[in-house]
Specification:
The chain is mainly alpha-helical. The protein has one domain (38-139). 58% of the residues lie in helices and 0% in strands. 15% of the residues are buried.
Length: 139
Amino acid sequence: MPELAEYLDTQDRRYFAGKSELENVPAPQTTKRFNMALTREFKETIKARMERDPGFRKALLARAAQALLAGETDIGKSMLRDYINATVGFQDLGADIDKTPESLMRMLSATGNPRTNNLMEIFEYLQQAEGIQLVVKSI
């Protein structure tokens, strides 16, 4: 699977490659995690990128699955929520898998605790809608 950086614009890549103007700024000396609300502009930027770049869209879905399998549930749920918002939407997803949109949003919220069968049902639907099949491989 291609790396996410392959789907970034050339200007964006330098930040992921460590060649930004900030590379000489020391990393913070804290292990405390901060949850920052994403701005509407950022979410719209991601949605626009997903609409114009199918590779980026597929990579985001694959990364959400990877994060969940790696035990990074908060990150995986957040990525999955962004993916759904930018593609099929919670209304259509809920109608097709016989769950209310509110229930789906609650499952994928920061405090949500979705059951495995619900996650698998969501991924099955999204893979079919995207026309891909995610595969687990040992590394």
